[in-house]
Write a structure and sequence with these properties.
Length: 282
């Protein structure tokens, strides 16, 4: 599992904890640092937006003029779309990320942000033509109740025929562990600042519908003193058939297509690392 770039914005959906019970801050409280920690590649956001436009062109007859960005963080995708004249609304649980998004999008175009939980939400907004859930964050919702509530919340915000595109990591190849185990250590350098990163795998109960639990620990070497962050990320296993089943069970969606690795032509069986579920509002 490519956890290094998994969930670039999911801090809003995860509770940071310490084993001893004392709370630590989340890496997602530091918007200028967390993307580098997750090794986001140059031009990655732009490539994802171009792919979204290809999906919209293929699966929607009318132009997309209003977009809902779910678990948006500071909504880098939305900022690009807003500059191109699309009205964008972002929702996220993190006030830090929302503040960053509002600051960065001043003068960009029609952008608004709301602080909302991704599992269940409502907005004082007109219906949207499309919604997107990027950065492979979707699998942090691990219960059936949360998934159904989420899909129904999104469905209520979309026009009939509207598209919901979900970015999902290919989940295979992880070793289940009986105890917390160090997976990897690395150092990230950001403009003279050093961040020591440790990543762990944690055990999961056999009866839970999860693929893994990923723990991210960062020590940020600020000049005034080091700050340690910790985030626990539960990951549910998703494949195209399970997403299709959940879409139908919600009563809101059908699975229109599955795409591999930002490609409109690569067979899903040849997915190299991430895939995209395209749901259509019925």
């Amino acid at each position: 599992m490519r956890t290094a770039r998994f969930h670039k914005r999911f801090g809003a959906a995860v509770a940071p904890t310490l084993d001893c019970g004392r709370m630590e801050p989340s890496i997602y409280e530091f918007p200028d640092i967390f993307r580098r920690v997750h090794m986001e590649r140059p031009h990655e956001i732009g490539d994802e937006v171009r792919f979204m436009r290809q999906v919209w062109e293929r699966h929607r007859e009318r132009p997309v003029r209003r977009v809902l960005d779910i678990a948006s963080g500071n909504s880098p995708h939305g900022q690009i779309l807003a500059r191109e004249g699309i009205a964008v609304v972002g929702i996220d649980r993190s006030p830090t990320m929302i503040a960053a998004g509002r600051r960065e999008s001043r003068g960009v175009g029609a952008m608004r942000f709301y602080r909302r939980a991704i599992e269940r939400f409502a907005l004082p907004e007109a219906p949207f033509d499309a919604a997107l859930f990027m950065s492979e964050t979707f699998p942090v919702m691990t219960t059936n109740a949360a998934l159904m509530s989420h899909l129904r919340s999104v469905g209520r915000m979309l026009r009939r025929g509207g598209l919901y595109c979900i970015d999902i990591d290919r989940h295979d190849g992880i070793d289940l562990v009986r105890r917390r185990r160090l997976w990897r250590k690395r150092v990230v350098r950001i403009d003279g600042l050093r961040v020591w990163v440790r990543e762990f795998h944690r055990p999961i109960a056999w009866h839970q519908a999860m693929h893994s639990i990923y723990e991210l620990e960062c020590t940020i070497g600020f000049a005034g003193g080091a700050v340690r962050t910790r985030d626990l990320i539960p990951v549910r296993y998703h494949t195209p058939p399970t997403i299709e089943l959940m879409a139908r069970a919600s009563g809101m969606f059908e699975l229109a297509a599955s795409y591999a690795d930002l490609s409109m032509t690569r067979p899903i069986e040849q997915c190299g690392g991430r895939w995209f579920a395209v749901l259509k509002r019925i």
